[in-house]
Amino acid sequence: MEVVVQKDADSAVNLTARLIAARLDAKPDLVLGLATGRTMERVYDRLVALGRSFKRVRSFNLDEYVGLAPEDPQSYRSYMRQHLFDRVDIDPENVRLPEADRPDLKEVARRYEADINAAGGIDLQLLGIGETGHIGFNEPLSALMSRTRDKTLTQSTRQQNAAMFGGDPDRVPPRAMTMGVGTILDAIEVLLLATGEHKAAIVAKAIEGPITSMVTASALQLHPNCKVVLDEAAASRLQGRDYYDWVFQNEPDWDEFR
Ligand code: F6R
Fold first, then answer.
1. Which residues line ligand 1 (CB under 6 A)?
2. What does the alpha-carbon distance between residue 113 and residue 179 come to, in Å, rounded to a whole number?
3. pTM score, two decimals?
4. C-beta of residue 140 within 8 angstroms of C-beta of residue 129
5. Could you identify the atom of ligand 1 that is nearest to the CA of residue 134?
6. d(CA 184, CA 91)
7. Where do runs of H (alpha helix) occur along 29-178?
8. H-only helix segments in 71-224
9. Atom of ligand 1 nearest to the CA of 40
10. What is the DSSP string of 2-25?
11. How does DSSP classify residue 98?
C-alpha cells in the first residue's frame, strides 16, 4: 500500500483524477471500477475537466440500492449519469451497475461477477471509505473473501447517506447490492480517496490497524497495488506519516504526479 497525503481536499481530488487520466492514456479500453458518494463527485468533476475519451472504457460500479429502479433519481445509476456518464463519451452499453431492482438478486450477483470476468477483470478500482470502514457497501463483518451480493446497511451508513434522501435516514433503502471485498481485491490496481477530519479515525484504522472484517477497508493491506490518497485532515491520525511522505518523494512511479 502507498499512502499519499496532499495539502488539501482539492489537491487530493486533483491527484486522484490525474491518476485515473494517466491510466486511461495508457489503456484507452480500461476496465474501470467506479464508486459513488460525496467524495467522488469532485473527482468526476475534475476528470471531466481533464477531457479524456471514455469511448472504449468499460465500467462496473461498486454498488446499488436494492429496490431502486435505474431511473429513480436516488439510484446510483442516476448519480453516475449526473456526475460522469452524461458528461463524457462513454458508451451506455459499456456501463454496468448491479441491477438491484430485479427479483432474483442471487442471479444478478452471479451475472455481475461473470460480466466482470468476461471483461477481463477490473484494471483500476476507485474507492471511497465510509465511516464504518466500509469499501463498497461491505459493512463490518463482511467476509474478506466475499463476492457480489446483497447486504444490509448499518444505521450509521444510512445516516451518512441521508442527504440524498431528503435528510431522512429512514428513507435510505436498508439493503444494497455490492461487490464483495474479494471482488475488490481482485482488481489489478486499487485507488482509495478520503478527505476530511471526519474520516481521520477510520482511515488510521484501515491503513495502520489490524486486518479485520470489522473494518473491511483494512483488507486493502493485502492488495499488491493499492494507493490511498488523503488530504491533511483525513491523514491527521496516521502514525507513519513521515515515511509515507518520504516514499512519495522518492518513488519513481510518482514522478509525473508530484
Ligand atoms: C459508494 C461506496 C461507498 C462510499 C463511502 C464514502 O459507491 O461504495 O463505499 O465510497 O460511503 O462515501 P462519501 O464519499 O459520501 O463519504
1. 35-39, 62-63, 128-130, 134-136
2. 8
3. 0.98
4. no
5. 9
6. 23
7. 38-50, 76-83, 105-118, 155-160
8. 76-83, 105-118, 155-160, 181-185, 200-208
9. 14
10. EEEEESSHHHHHHHHHHHHHHHHH
11. -
Q: Are 222 and 212 in contact (CB under 8 A)?
A: no
Phi-psi group of 51: left, alpha or beta (phi > 0 → left; psi -120 to 50 → alpha; rest → beta): left
Distance CA 142, CA 181 (A): 8
Q: How far apart are CA 230 and CA 236, in angstroms?
A: 10
Backbone φ and ψ of 240, nearest 5°: -95, 25
Query: Which cell is 223 given?
Result: 492488495
| The C-alpha cell that represents 144 in the structure block | 474478506
Query: In the chain, what percentage of residues exceed pLDDT 70?
Result: 100
Choose the residue to mutate in 62, 165, 230, 231 for probing ligand 1, maximizing ligand atoms within 8 Å of C-beta: 62
Task: Tell me the CA–centroid distance for residue 61 and ligand 1, in Å.
Answer: 12
pLDDT in tens, 131-142: 999 999 999 999
- The amino acid sitting at 159 is Q
